[in-house]
Amino acid sequence: MSLERKDEHDHEGWMETKDLSPIEEVYLTTLIWLDKRLRIVDYLELLEDMYYKTNLQMPKSHTEQYNLDNKFWYWYPLYALGSFSTIAYVVASITGALLGFYYAPSTAAPSADAATSVAYSNVLFIMGDLNFGTFLRSLHRWSAQVMTAAVFLHMLRVYFTGAYKEPRELNWIIGIVLISLTMVFGYTGYLLPWSQLSYWAGQIGVEMALSIPLIGDWVAQLIFGGFTLGEATLQRMYILHVFLLPFVVTLVIAIHIGIVWMQGIAEPH
Amino acid sequence: MSNDEPKTDGGEPKTDGGGIVPQDDQAPTWSERKERTQGLARLTYEYFERSRREDEDLRRASDYVERDVLAFPTWPHEMIRNLAITSFFLGAMFFIAAAIPPHIPGPADPNSTPAVILPDWYLYWSFGLLKLTPINPELSLLGGQKLMSDRTYGVLANLVVVGVIAIVPFLNKGSARRPVEEPFWAAVGVGGVVFAFTIAVLAVQNLITDLLPMTSGELFILTFMLPFAFAFVAYSVLKTMREGYMFELNRRYYRLRPPK
Ligand code: HEM
Asked: Is the backbone of residue B174 left (phi > 0), alpha (psi -120 to 50) or beta?
């Protein structure tokens, strides 16, 4: 009898009964050595659990079970509109961050005798002198417009497939918030070049804000920085467009998609 | 150490850390802790226990294989398919962006109002709602005066439209999903979409009345009549389709799950 303390579960004895190849033996020895010290098994179990959760052998979905697939496969592209909105949003964010390097939200004249603003001349610089500047701005505008269109069509898809019904009412309302925020995003961006169109679209915005009963003045002050357009307006639009809205919209989209993830895509009945 | 403190062990100095009580069976388990809670926490606990039991009962009664969600799984099925379709659209978007660069209008000039003031196209509908002046009700009580200014009325119209869309899930309930199953709601949808377009056209009415032989009064009427016309057509078509379609659908169901 040896005085050496016996391995409680005698892993070595177990290994000897197994007739292992050298590779297997080294592997097992290392694994047992590490496991004794780090309790790898517990973490492996977690990983394994996660693996099976994401790769569940799914039973047939309702659509497959009743063989409805042939009825509506041609609607699939419409089901991708939500994802497409997300991707367009990502493209707009990246190009927007790049545009931000070359833009300053100022209505001051760039030189003493110029009749334009720093903001406007920055946009001209991007369009004219910056390498790939035209493409960058073009992509930013197109992705913003495409996103808005995709979001609208996504909403129509949800409506006409009745996907807003019972467990998904909350996501419908979050969607309303999202489409509104998307439009506000577009509006604030529209003002940034401080062109003739920007200016007069801003003018309408101020008038709309002022016409709200009771709190109109206050709203106009808060959002447009005054009753007439100027430096303050442009700066507020800029902060809304590049600071406030990106955080809010990203968060709300994450919640929206998280809920879809939990609930699954609504199937036709 | 003060002298009036009670001594329980003959006053000898303690070296074992004193008051540490060894863990024993008295320590409550988590479920015991939850049972002992009060108020809102207690209600939450009770509700969760109930719904867990309900889930279990349902699962036992059902002959379905267990699955995560009661719908089409987002991962991986939907996402993979979306990625494929989306990458195509993304390519198209890059192509268009390269082919059609945006134009830039002249710099802002507060002193000259342009002939056409417009936001981006996706706000036309909102802009159009500001031009509802002709249907702002006049109160005879106030001697033909309007209750609110036309602008206020337009802003309010915006809120009403968004609000109505937001409460759709609470107006239309039930498990029907396909437009043919609910011709009325499908027609409402079609009318809504057409209205979104016509009200957007109303926003650019100066351009339209220049372009088409039409007065702004006629355009205004069309704005409201066209949605109804389209909704009516949609309703009739779906109502007609409905019977045959539902028959097909039911046959498919019953072949797989014959009624007991
Ligand atoms: C920024 C805007 C939005 C983004 C990025 C977005 C993203 C998504 C995505 C990726 C899905 C998964 C299914 C699919 O792709 O069709 C989805 C589903 C859904 N969305 Fe959106 N969405 C947006 C706006 C909206 C709007 C405006 C509405 C409606 C008012 C809405 C209501 C819903 C609902 C109810 C679902 C669940 C549909 C189902 O389960 O079949 N979303 N959204």
From this structure: left
CB contacts, 8 Å: A195 with chain B? 104-108
Residue from the list A59, A61, A183 with its beta carbon closest to the beta carbon of B123: A183
Q: What distance in Å separates the CA atoms of residue A135 and residue A127, rounded to the nearest whole number?
A: 8
In chain B, which residues have their Cβ closer than 8 Å to the Cβ of A82? 82
Q: Specify whether the CB–CB gap between B59 and B68 falls below 8 A.
A: no
pLDDT at B54: 79
Residue nearest to atom 4 of ligand 1 (CA): A82
Please count the CA atoms within 13 angstroms of the CA of B254 that sit on its side-chain side. 8
Distance B86 CA to ligand 1 centre (A): 15
- The per-residue pLDDT for range B95-129, each reduced to its tens digit, is 999 999 998 888 888 888 887 778 889 999 998 88
Ligand 1: which atom is nearest the Cα of residue A85? 5
Query: What is the nearest CA distance from B81 to chain A, expressed in angstroms?
Result: 8
Three-state secondary-structure class, residue B250: helix
In the reported structure, the alpha carbon of residue A85 is separated from the centroid of ligand 1 by a whole-number distance in angstroms of 9
Question: What are the tens digits of pLDDT across the range A45-93?
Answer: 788 777 766 655 455 556 666 666 555 567 788 999 999 999 999 999 9
DSSP helix/strand/coil, A104: coil
Atom of ligand 1 nearest to the CA of B82: 15
pLDDT digits (tens, 9 = 90+) for B171-205: 998 878 888 888 999 999 999 999 999 999 888 87
Top-level CATH class of A72-263? mainly alpha
The residue ranges of every structural domain in chain A are 3-57, 72-263
Determine the pLDDT at residue A9. 72
**B203 burial type by CB count under 10 A (0-12 exposed, 13-18 middle, 19+ buried):** buried
Give every residue of chain A whose pLDDT is below 50, as ranges.
57
DSSP A203-261: HHHHHHHHTSTTTHHHHHHHHHSSSS-SHHHHHHHHHIIIIIHHHHHHHHHHHHHHHHH
* Best mutation site among A184, A260, A269 for ligand 1 pocket (most ligand atoms within 8 Å of CB): A260
Query: Which ligand 1 atom is the nearest neighbour of the CA of A263?
Result: 40
Is the CB of B101 inside 8 Å of chain A's CB atoms? yes
